[in-house]
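Example record

The entry below shows one chain as it appears in the dataset: sequence first, then structure tokens.
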Amino acid sequence: MRSADRSFPSDLEHRVLAFMRTCCGISAKAHVIVAVSGGADSLCLLHVLHRLADEFPLEIHVAHLDHMLRGNASGDDAAFVSGQAHDLGLPCTVESRDIAAYRSLHRCSIEEAAREVRYQFLREVACRYGAGIIMTGHTRDDAVETVMLHLVRGSGIHGLRGLEPVNAFPLAPEEDEDRDVLQIIRPLLSVTREETLRYCRLRGLTHCEDASNESLDFLRNRMRLEVLPVLRQLNPRCDEALLRLAVAAAEDDDHIIAAANEVWAHSVAVSKSCVRIDVQQFADSSPAVQARVVRRAIIGVAGSARDVATSHIVSVRSLAGMRPGKQVDLPCGVVWRREEATLLAFRRDDDPNAEVIMAPEQPVALAVPGETRIPGWRIVATCHGGPCDATGNELVAYLDLGRTGSKLSVRRRKPGDRFRPLGMQLEKKLQDFLVDAKVPSRFRDSIPLVTSESHIVWVTGWRIDDRVKVGPHTQEVLRLEFVRDPLSHAS
């Protein structure tokens, strides 16, 4: 054996020890969950940490997740990891999750599903055993591959950070932000995959071989096996260049994050079901900061930003320059609406404004002109011959009085209701209109309908009937406004 090989294991161990002392900021006896798949990388990490116990004692708990994707091979890996932990005298948690079912339910790639479920599992194990740290066996090669994957996906500056030595583990949507932050630490990021293989070989450690790592069905494998080898032919120092890019991106990203946090602190109001952003302060910030604020709001409302592309972020940002009432419906189930002074983000099935008006049980005649009260609201009707002062307020409607007549009432919807939405030449079922407008079903009966003697003239808050719109031949304009009045009662 060459002298270099004889010194290699201790050299790698000393590098990991130096990393933990200088980069992690963790103390000895910290309770750590070590994620072990059974491959060379995670097996190397486990044995290095165990061998460093005298130098840097940690309370290690081994965690392994069976993804149930490779038949008996998955079970064999689980048994192998459990045996390794037993031989080292370490506690171990081995569980299985149906990744394929998760993928089908959440309509994502198998790689995304495996990653999300794996981290959910690691979080649960850490919480179960009171650990504040999760360690993984990601190597320098993983870091390089991640930067390239994010680059080709167009994930922006934040994605170009790639893998970092230490990250705060993302909070689950239901978790309190004031609780102690769970950390994820990657002690092998300065170590290559070849070095972990050599470490296992020199220590006499047999690791598991995952046949799926050679499958070109997975994007990361294609990047590792096909794309990066070509790039290294073009530039033998390609890996170093990509890692320098990641460092530069992290520095720029930190600056953007700080600016976005400042905007968030001064212009955002968060409630249990929605996020409101001050339009003026949002518009005054840079596009990069706006994008971060939008993404943070989406995660706050939906729990994740899966399926949210750059084009979706741009469409939300554009709402700041639109008139009130405009909205954008994102594929993640979050709706954004432009209000008078704010941008409102909420879950599609939990519109905070959907219940602001309750249609009366029985039809109530409107005083035209005059004021009519229904529970919680005043309906103010004024008539004038001047132009419309359109404000974009969805609770104000301007109608042609000659077409509506003065005998109007407000009521709930009835089966078979139809009207002609503004801009359409044919009538449409009210039910179909509400479905197309994505009004949650449980709110549809609460929407007041202003009706004339012959038909619906206004689906309050949503659309007037095209037949009563103000036009060039309108002689008198009817202005209807719903005004909040908690003390009012039906007249």
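Notes for this example: The mean pLDDT is 87. The first strand starts at residue 31 and ends at 35.
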